[in-house]
Amino acid sequence: MIDKAAAQERLKPGEILILGRTHEGRAFRPSDWAERLAGVMAQFGPGSGRQGQGHLCYSPYCMPTLVDGVRAVVVSRALADVEPKAWNFVLSFARDNNLETVEACILDVADPAAPPAQPLRLLA
User: How big is the CA angle at 19 (ends 16 and 23), to the nearest 5 degrees?
Assistant: First the structure.
């Protein structure tokens, strides 16, 4: 089982992680689904998916990754601003295939070694 806290460490605010595992715990097939989805989304972003000698370049808004041995895709919310239909497509893909998703936490986790924060004071 994927540790949601570990998945959070991979994400930046404004990103979601689509895991290659259904809510029932089954692995999503085909095994290269993350690369396929990111390949389809490669046209959205700087360079339109192709750089140099025709090599595919993933969009910075949709990148395949591996989390605890499970294939996944990191999707930036910036995609919604660039191309709302593409954003809806990715979210619909996750929903239609019953895939688990993890949303980035807005707050950073405090460093336990850091000194405690000063209490807030009301200004007069």
Answer: 110
- Pairing between strand 99-103 and 15-22? antiparallel
pTM, to two decimals: 0.71
Rounded distance between C-alpha atoms, residue 59 and residue 112, angstroms: 35
For residues 20-46, one letter each, b for 16 or more C-beta atoms within 10 angstroms of the residue's C-beta and e for the rest, the string is bbeeeeeebeeeebbeebbbbbbebbe
Alpha-carbon gap, residue 47 to 120, rounded angstroms: 46
Write out the residue range of the structural domain in which residue 63 sits: 4-103
Tokens of 66: 């591996």
Kindly list the distances between the CA atom of residue 84 and the CA atoms of 5, 69, 78, 88, 91, in Å, as whole numbers in the listed order.
Answer: 28, 30, 9, 6, 11
| Across 48-68, average pLDDT | 76
The answer to whether 75 touches 65, Cβ cutoff 8 Å, is no
Give the number of C-alpha atoms closer than 13 A to the C-alpha of residue 47, restricted to the C-beta side. Answer: 15
Total number of domains constituting the chain: 1
